[in-house]
Every structure is written in structure tokens, then in C-alpha cells.
Design a protein that fits this description.
Blueprint (H helix, E strand, L loop, with lengths): L1 H31 L21 E11 L2 E11 L4 E5 L6 H8 L7 E6 L2 E2 L5 H7 E4 L10 H6 L7 H10 L3 H5 L18 H15 L3 E5 L7 H15 L3 E5 L3 H5 L3 E6 L2 E6 L1 H7 L2 H25 L1
Helix pairs in contact: 5-7, 7-8, 10-11
The structure holds adenosine-5'-triphosphate (ATP).
The site of adenosine-5'-triphosphate has 11 residues, from β1 and α2.
């Protein structure tokens, strides 16, 4: 029996290694979410990022030919500025971020980065210029250090620590039993949505891209976590061209421009105070959100009183 148990253990070991490898690859494809049909055009050059200006010019797009999702979207994000995109579910907000990454090609119009049409540059150079902080970050079944290093594979442990501090997650990691060596992911320590988002921010700080695409989590955060995440986002977006799909008041208040999308069109645009005073879609969205927040707050207080 002993003779059999060694090879069996070995097979178990190989199996686990392969499983882990598969999980990484699967998750990587999930992360990249790349449909196969997009390819570099012959002679595509690397994107040259001078300052990082992003421009959508009369963009029309459909996933399926008979249903247009974006119906003529134009906006500009000047270098280093922040544009927030808000609007009801299904309006096309995430689609805008997918198009900037060129996961799909548009039907008509142009998407430009520093004046270069993104269809004329290599996808690799385009994607390396954009940092993405998704709503729900996929964690690899590996250490927390590995998960942060994913932003820049040659980063040292000191770089990782610094990025984690800036992302407001350093203290949390140090408090874990194995610190940066703690295993996370499905088979390790499960992190909350807010913690995962800060891991993604730390990754992005390491990557240091000129352009940032943030997709805020819709789920409610307690006010302490919200402040921490906002501080982390402020750090990572400082001096970078930033597009944020915003769900929180704290984000949109500081944005240089807010774009209100509805049914694939820009319904309203401007700064927070201007839009509020207009009393339109934006104003009613925030009024509704405020009511919801207040109701939650009352519920929490009632539960605490019990
Ligand atoms: P939410 O706030 O709910 O995330 P959103 O404004 O980000 O919504 P999008 O994800 O951009 O909305 O989706 C816009 C529309 O495009 C939706 O009607 C959606 O059903 C459709 N859509 C999204 N992805 C695909 C896809 N891969 N194939 C076909 N239709 C899609």
C-alpha cells in the first residue's frame, strides 16, 4: 500500500498544480474579457501617450446589429481631468469602458487617445496605457502579494507595500496572520467587495497608467469604507486622465464633468451643482439615492437600538 500512496500523492500534487494553472488562465480570460474578433490592423503602431487626452466623437455602437446601445456619444476628457458617467442601469455606462479598451469595434464615429484613433494602434500598447479598476475584482488563488504584483510583475515587495499603503489596504494586510503571504481567493481568505476593490487600486498604482477607468461598486458601503476607498481613488487618479462609472455622491461631487447617460444618449452634462439646480434626471437620481441612504441609516439605527 505504501508503494501505491507515493504515486497517488504525486498525482494529487500534479492535479492541484494543473487546477491552479487552469484557474489562473480562466480568470485571466475573465479579466481580459476579450472577444477573439478584434485584431491589430496591419502596420498598427504602438500608442504614443503624450498627456493622455481621451475623446469619444459621435460614437455609435451595437453588440447585435439590430439593437444600437450607444447612439452618438461625444465627450472629451482633458489630460489629468476626471469625467464621471452616471445613469440608470442598462444605459450603456460599462459599454463605454469596454469600447475604450477596444474589446469591441464601434459602428461609426471615433475614439481617440491623444489624437490617435484606437483602431490604428496596437491593442497591447492601448491596454497597457489604461488602468482598469473593475467593480468586482477577480483574485487569484495565491498570496495577496502576488495579487497586487499582477499590476507590474517586476515590482519589489517594497513597491507592493507602498502601493498597498496608498490604496488604504496596507494596515488590513499587516493585520492578517501571514501578512502579505496570506493566501486569498476562492480557496484562501475571502475579501469583502471593498477590500477587493482596494487590491485592484493597489495593482493599478503599481501599473501607473496615464489613463484610468474606474467602475465603482454599486453595493452599499459603510461610511468608513467609503471614505477609505474614496481616499484611495483620489490617490490613484491624481494627475491621471480618469473616467469613472460613478455610483456614489462623493465621487461625482469632485468630477470635472458629469455625463448623464440614458438609453445610449447623453441626457444631461455638467458639474454636480449645475446639474442639481437644473432639476432634471440627475437631480431626481440623487434625490432618490439620498432617500435610500437615509432609509438604510434609519434601519441601521433601529437595529442598533434593539
Ligand atoms: P449597469 O449600471 O446595470 O451596469 P450599464 O449602464 O453599465 O448598466 P451596459 O453594461 O453598458 O449598461 O449595457 C448596456 C446595454 O447593452 C444593456 O441593455 C445590456 O443588456 C446590453 N449588453 C451589454 N453587454 C452585452 C453583450 N455582451 N451582448 C449583448 N448586449 C449586451
Amino acid at each position: 500500500l505504501m508503494q501505491l500512496s507515493v504515486p497517488l500523492n504525486f498525482i494529487g500534487f500534479i492535479y492541484r498544480e494543473i487546477r491552479q494553472g487552469l484557474t489562473d488562465i480562466e480568470q485571466m480570460f475573465d479579466l481580459l474579457d476579450v472577444p477573439a474578433e478584434i485584431s491589430d490592423r496591419p502596420g498598427a503602431r504602438p500608442l504614443k501617450v503624450a498627456e493622455g487626452k481621451v475623446e469619444f466623437r459621435d460614437v455609435h455602437f451595437a453588440y447585435e446589429s439590430n439593437r444600437e446601445i450607444l447612439k452618438g456619444i461625444s465627450f472629451e476628457v482633458p489630460a489629468g481631468k476626471t469625467v464621471a458617467i452616471v445613469g440608470p442601469s442598462g444605459a450603456g455606462k460599462s459599454t463605454i469602458s469596454r469600447l475604450l479598451f477596444r474589446f469591441y469595434d464601434i459602428k461609426s464615429g471615433q475614439i481617440l487617445v491623444d489624437g490617435q484613433d484606437i483602431r490604428d494602434v496596437t491593442q497591447e500598447s492601448l491596454r497597457s496605457a489604461i488602468g482598469m479598476v473593475p467593480q468586482d475584482t477577480v483574485l487569484f488563488n495565491d498570496t495577496i502579494a502576488y495579487n497586487i504584483r499582477y499590476g507590474r510583475v517586476d515590482a519589489s515587495l517594497d513597491d507592493i507595500r507602498e502601493a498597498a499603503e496608498l490604496a488604504q489596504i496596507g494596515g488590513f494586510i499587516q493585520g492578517l496572520p501571514d501578512g502579505y503571504k496570506t493566501m486569498v481567493g476562492e480557496r484562501g481568505l475571502k475579501l469583502s467587495g471593498g477590500e477587493k476593490q482596494r487590491v485592484a487600486i493597489a495593482r493599478t498604482i503599481l501599473k501607473a497608467p496615464p489613463i484610468l477607468m474606474l467602475d465603482e461598486a454599486t453595493s452599499a458601503l459603510d461610511s468608513h469604507t467609503e471614505r477609505e476607498i474614496q481616499a484611495a481613488l483620489d490617490t490613484v487618479s491624481r494627475g491621471r486622465t480618469t473616467i469613472v462609472i460613478a455610483h456614489r455622491l462623493s465621487t461625482v461631487i469632485g468630477a470635472d464633468e458629469i455625463i448623464v447617460l440614458k438609453d445610449g444618449r447623453i441626457a444631461e452634462r455638467g458639474r454636480h451643482a449645475d446639474l442639481l439646480s437644473k432639476g432634471g434626471l440627475y437631480a431626481s437620481m440623487w434625490a432618490r439615492q439620498r432617500e435610500a441612504t437615509e432609509a438604510e441609516e434609519r434601519l441601521r439605527q433601529a437595529q442598533e437600538a434593539d
